[in-house]
Amino acid sequence: MPGKVKTIGDLIRGIKEKARPLRFMEVCGTHTMAIAKYGLRQLLPAEIELLSGPGCPVCVTSQSDIDLALELAGRPGVTLFTFGDMLRVPGASGSLETIRARGANVIICYSALECLQYAVNHPQEEIVFLGVGFETTAPTVAVAIEQALAHKVNNFSVLSFHKRVVPALQALVSGGNTAIDGFLLPGHVSSILGQEPYEFLAREYNKACVITGFTAEDILLGILMLLSQVENKSYRVEIQYKRGVNPEGNPQALAYLAKYFTPVETTWRGLGAIPESGLGLAEAYKDFDAFRRFSLQLGRKEIPTACSCGEILKGLKKPVECVLFAKQCTPLEPVGPCMVSSEGSCAASFYYGR
Amino acid sequence: MDQDCILMSHGAGGLKTYQLIKEIFHKHFANPILAQELDASLFPSAPGRWAMTTDSFVVKPLFFPGGDIGKLSVCGTVNDLAVSGAKPLYLTSSFIMEEGFPLIDLEKIVASMAHTAREAGIQIVAGDTKVVEKGSGDGIFITTTGLGLVPGEIDYSPQHMRPGDKVIISGPLGQHGLTIMAARGSLPVSTSLVSDCACLHELLNPLHSPEIRCMRDPTRGGLATTLNELALQSGLGFLLEEGAIPRDPAVEGLADLLGLDSLYLANEGKAVVIASPQAAPRVLAQLRNHPLGRQASLIGEVTGETPGQVLLQTDLGTKRVLRMPAGELLPRIC
Fold it and tell me: Of B119, B263, B270, B126, which is closest to residue B197 (Cα–Cα)?
């Protein structure tokens, strides 16, 4: 079927022919931004609803995890490195940006290796990499730990808030309160995981599934493929993004994940605690685990706000349905993480959607 | 000099300061006005209106493909003058250096500034140096102030824009911003990208006419931010054609990979020109006639329908709002 489809016009005509009231979730934050950036909702028939899923690593970081990072960054002698998007995510008592302004050492970086290099150059400081991201990002952190071990860097550790996509999807579909007919599955994460881990969605829950790329053509073709699965009641995991994803994934990256990390229960913003959905450091690398090195205790209470990020991540609300959206909550003064992140659904709606 | 790096005593105002100024700054910047060695340089006046601008440069890394902080500190200020319609004439430069900064790097930066200024026909007529303790700075910061002369009839203010005026960009976008990101060595890719850092006055000065409504150089925040500023200042809007915007395939490929949008990436050698519909074809032809404007393109127009907003008509026929960015551009982590 996909081979016959050539142009955007063909894709849209195909989608309109098959359209009926359906709800599809794009799991990945990059999909959310691409859909908004290309204005694809303007092209789709009104019956097809696109929901943003829990695929933005900044958005799903819990308030209590942010508070933990704030506590650690405030300790004397500690320098905390993280990705820029994390800086403005609010915890209960401020953000990394606000404590940096008050004197904490918080540095923006683009990779864990950059952080490791800083640790080599500053042996008198304790350097902590605050890692967020899914299976795409975590292998690069594993490489940094491998190099730290090889070069005997003993002032470097990782505060791992990395998460696994599949347990979150499991929690979403088994929760029963979200009517989702199909998933546009994440292209980048799937380039690591391959196809198999998602099979349960089709097999056990009758969800249409397409691993999709990030151009307008990719996304429209992904939607058309989802519609065909629903039409034929033939639910399976298809790969639209063949140029980026092998069915078996990336064995080397998977080996890094398996060696350096271990699945642990973790709390997702909006979704709550999900067993085996986090990536903690494996026992053999405990010396690099910031939780152990600094005796950090998880589990602080979340302080509720009027922010609807939780419902938005579950596909229960759209950003514009949040009472704070574009009023008290804007990219300049974000209340929730979905408005902070460059991959967040609220930021996408704010920048492109209105 | 005996030492190989900046010492606190280089900033103390004594012999070492004098030696530094003579052996590095005056050696490279040499010109009759600077040679006066007065507390304030004297220069002849000229008929017309003066334009004055100042800018500070804190780029990291200091040396990058296509330029360095010295070249950038001259081009940036020259371009602010050029888009104001001024012919750049004089520059001052102020250096804040960190203790321990290698003198060999300082000399390379100063030589690069001198070379760029010579090529631009602008004289560096005054300067200042300060040294801060190690750890209090980031190698070197440079502030330049530029003076230029504006011909009588020229007034490029956004208030002169009218609905129907054309938007012209002098070339593809994002080369500087992405080159700097890549040159920091923290991206998971290597590239052959080169900054577009260049002085634009020779490209822009010949365009001068009342039919040019406004000019800007889209530096930090890129084209999208520059047009948003113009929209807010004028109370008018813009409608851009995505397909008409010139693209650099290397920039677009890497930006796509990183989740960045070239319309928001910084440029250091591009100008956006708003011209009347009648003048637009002439302006476009003139720009394309210059090596720095070969890929100039007419990318959209000023509208009265969406006050304060910049809209992009996408290749798919959809429209999206190009908003002012809220913070710095960051590669995706997903």
Answer: B270
Phi/psi class of residue A348: alpha, beta or left (left: φ > 0; alpha: ψ in -120 to 50)? alpha
CB neighbours of residue B139 within 10 Å: 20
Distance from CA of B252 to the nearest CA of A (A): 13
Q: Is the ipTM reported for this complex over the cut 0.90?
A: no
Cβ-count burial of A337 within 10 angstroms (0-12 exposed, 13-18 middle, 19+ buried)?
Answer: buried
**pLDDT tens-place values along chain A, 354 residues long:** 444 546 889 999 999 999 999 999 999 988 988 898 888 988 999 999 998 888 888 888 988 899 999 999 999 999 999 988 898 888 888 899 999 999 999 999 888 998 999 999 999 999 999 999 999 999 999 999 999 999 999 999 999 999 999 999 999 899 866 689 999 999 999 999 999 999 999 999 999 999 999 999 999 999 999 999 999 999 999 999 999 999 999 999 999 999 999 999 999 988 889 999 999 999 999 999 999 999 998 765 667 778 888 888 888 888 889 999 988 898 888 888 888 887 788 888 888 775
Q: Would you mind telling me the total number of residues written for chain B in this entry?
A: 334
Distance from CA of A222 to the nearest CA of B (A): 17
Residue written as token pair 């949040």? A322
Longest dimension (CA), chain B: 67
B1 three-class SS:
coil
Cα B107 to Cα B93: distance, rounded to the nearest angstrom: 14
> Which region, left, alpha or beta, applies to residue B174 given φ > 0 means left and ψ of -120 to 50 means alpha?
left
Integer CA distances (angstroms), B90 to A152, A286, B42, B87, B96, in order? 54, 60, 11, 10, 20
A:63-122 residues touching chain B, CB 8 A cutoff = 83-85, 88, 109-111, 113-114
CATH 3.40.50.11740 residue ranges for chain A: 1-304
Q: Which domains does chain B carry?
A: 5-150 (3.30.1330.10), 158-322 (3.90.650.10)
Q: How many CB pairs under 8 A join A and B?
A: 82
Q: Which two tokens stand for residue B264?
A: 């928001």
User: What is the second-level CATH architecture of the domain A1-304?
Assistant: 3-Layer(aba) Sandwich (3.40)
